[in-house]
Task: structure prediction
Amino acid sequence: MNSNRSLSNTSRYNGCSVSGALSVSAFIRDAVSIVHGPAGCAHQASSLFHSTMIANERFDIPYIYTSGLLEEQIIFGGENRLRESISEALSYDPSVVFVIGTCISETIGDDIDSVCTDAWEVPVINLNTSGFLGDSFERGFLNAIKGASELITASDEKTLSANIIGEKNLEFEVEENYSEIRRLLGLLGIDINIRFVRDITTEDIPNFCRGSLNIIREDPSGVLTQFFAEKTGIPSIPRFPSGTSDTLNFLEEAGRLLNLPWAEAVAREKEYQRSVFEEFSDLGDERIAFDSFGFQDADTQFFTDIAKNTGIKIDPDGTVIPIPLTAPVGTTGIRRMLREWRRFIDA
Amino acid sequence: MKQIALYGKGGIGKSTTSANLSAALSEKSLEILQIGCDPKHDSTRMLMHGEWIPTVLDLVRKKGEANIAVDEIVFKGYNGIRCVEAGGPEPGIGCAGRGIIATFQLLEKLDALYGDVIVYDVLGDVVCGGFAMPMREGYAQEVYLVTSGDFMALYAANNICKAIARLSKRTKNRCTLGGVICNSANIENEYELVKEFAEKINSKLVAFIPRSPIVRVSEVNRKTVIEYAPESEQAEIYRKLADTVMKNVPDKNKIPVPMEMDELESLSLKYIKI
Ligand code: SF4
Result:
């Protein structure tokens, strides 16, 4: 029984496993994702996509398919309706179909696995999202990454490149964060192999194992690190770096894992960090106070450190600065954040 | 319109009791509708002279809800009693409780839910939200618990009593406990035991139906006792039950008090002869 409870009752990070799974599967461009449940479940998720993506100025909102269960299927079982939906989905000529179960399909006991293992012309993958998956956006997200990884095949060829895993496709600064990681890896001479999963096609996935380093967006529970270690044998860094020293450590860690000299890259990055703080030296005499709006379990220490580096004083009467939902990534992330602080201070 | 429902453990004789009750009521020139709410769909068989009538849910599955006409689901049986079987999904899939409520709603939509008395014969001891729907939605307004002196039958009856007690707290509740019917299993001291059970749960024993071979004989002949052996003592007993039910006006404020498990056990022990 899934009985995880969210203390905050509900927040951006809790909610429905369907949205979490779609935030992965819908970003494989030649895939179709079918939400197997009432149309309302798919609607919930697509509304979220719609509003979040438009707010992030992305207009290529993925199309989400649903088996649209009605009362009739709730009474008699929805497996046949799922079969029909998969057939309908196949008319769009996808390379893979993902099936995303809901609370309802689990309640009435649909055996999604058996439907998925029927003889379909393309892989049909159950992302295991059915049921009341506790604190569930996360669980849907993880299960979808695991499900999509079924398309990964072994590779003899290795390149000096990194796989980026588990980018948060609905995150505001997802592209900026990616560019930052790419820039950092560039300092070490490492390319990007695959973004798993962001705007890829299924043709990209078999190349996964050509990468020689896995970098996971964030993996607080360690689940993805372990999963990909077992599946691919590729070493992992389990987070995107945030903060000055963490960014330097990231470079060092990546270098060590790949047996590359890293000292020069670290030195260059340190220099860049210095220049960033210099760029904001005009804020040196300013006073600010942080406000998390009660939303998050905010760890203000991180932001306090950045303020100190810039020479800004923390003062309860200072300009109120909202704490971002996620910590800025790398040095460029800090720079972006300081620009925002400047706007607040100058306002 | 009186809407009564017989609830009780599977195999306790709900269908036999319901069919004979409906038959006895029909003799009073009342218009009766009997709805079997069990995927097993054998509630109305004796009223239909052994015919298995198509179930509402089978038809919905085959034709879709929109294409169903009243005469495809409501069948005239003995003495003009209108018979309906809700049916259910195949075992192991879907949700039968939801199916039952969909059946009632369809009957309502087709203006078929009328009569002087509607007898709902509800599959017994499953009292999840889905199966409690008839009580919750105000279809089962007077619930009769069918039990014997068998411990498991009393246990099931007590559970249903819990459901009624729970629903009684709702402001819009229309469901009351009409009483307890003992369908005897030939257990010693059964009358006393079930009578005391009924009182303990703040209700009353409204009928004691002795076990009689005539019930089986009638069934083999595909008839209710009322029809097959109208002169028999057993038929008289069902007629008496029909009288009692018609006269019964359960007090809406009288809420049943389910027993605790150990209480129920000691009650059974009290009457058992070892
Ligand atoms: S019913 Fe379950 S699957 Fe559907 S939207 Fe709600 S939480 Fe998500």
